[in-house]
């Protein structure tokens, strides 16, 4: 064996040892966390103040321990069912628009979740040291997470990387999550009633919950550091997508030029990323996301106020009280 081969063998054995000892450490750690079953049938661990899906707990910790953010990184950080798919499509198409011609947007061939990969469900899932250099199709890197602000890796908070977050009315978010989890339920026989799921939702027990802590975490951070964190609302984007796209481009440091605006670049991105357009693309009608979820499950109705078709008056009253209680004195409103 020559010197180079010896060094390589040494490195491989060291990284193997590191993985084995990290596995042991993780097994010990996990025993200390409270555990519950979610209404979707999967286990959740209470970790750092949020309910972490058991499937991703290990990758969340790897992400927190090892990820080194670059100042140029752009991170989409959202609560589930608040418009992540839409925000990924909008940010990808805006940030990278000079990398492709308007007919060749990779969004037409790949799902938004393939183009903007997620740390905990994808990159770190079975690999504590994923290849992050090639995790994004173009530079700067565009990646995503569902972690609450408080639990982000320190380097994301301390570097100059940018974060974009989106929130949604909790009643619509809950109904969206309800439909999503019903489709994904592992044990189809053990269906949970809407009432029971709603009760768990109000108690904050679902993946990455409580919702209000998540939303307020990013909202407060965006108030303190608006150049680093852009906080958006699903309903506001629905009401006026063009002005939000301009705001997004400005935040990303790639404002639309006068010429682009004259040529309708803003409207074109809005159209390409619209629900009706994305839902009908072949790529989103078939195939699976890396987590095994069918692409089509990310597109349902995309309506504001759909909750009124499902929630009873007493559920609405309970949620309104909860909203009032959770947001009291925060300055934030839905
Ligand atoms: P509904 O279940 O209310 O229809 P996420 O992407 O965070 O998982 O959120 C999914 C929700 O966003 C679903 O809401 C889905 O239909 C909606 N959605 C997906 N793509 C969208 C788009 N391009 N524009 C607006 N809403 C979209």
UniProtKB/TrEMBL annotation:
Its EC number is 2.8.2.-. This is Sulfotransferase. Residues 71-331 form the Sulfotransferase domain. It holds the Pfam family Sulfotransfer_1. It comes from Hibiscus sabdariffa. InterPro entries: P-loop_NTPase, Sulfotransferase_dom. The keyword Transferase applies. Belongs to the sulfotransferase 1 family. Keywords: Transferase.
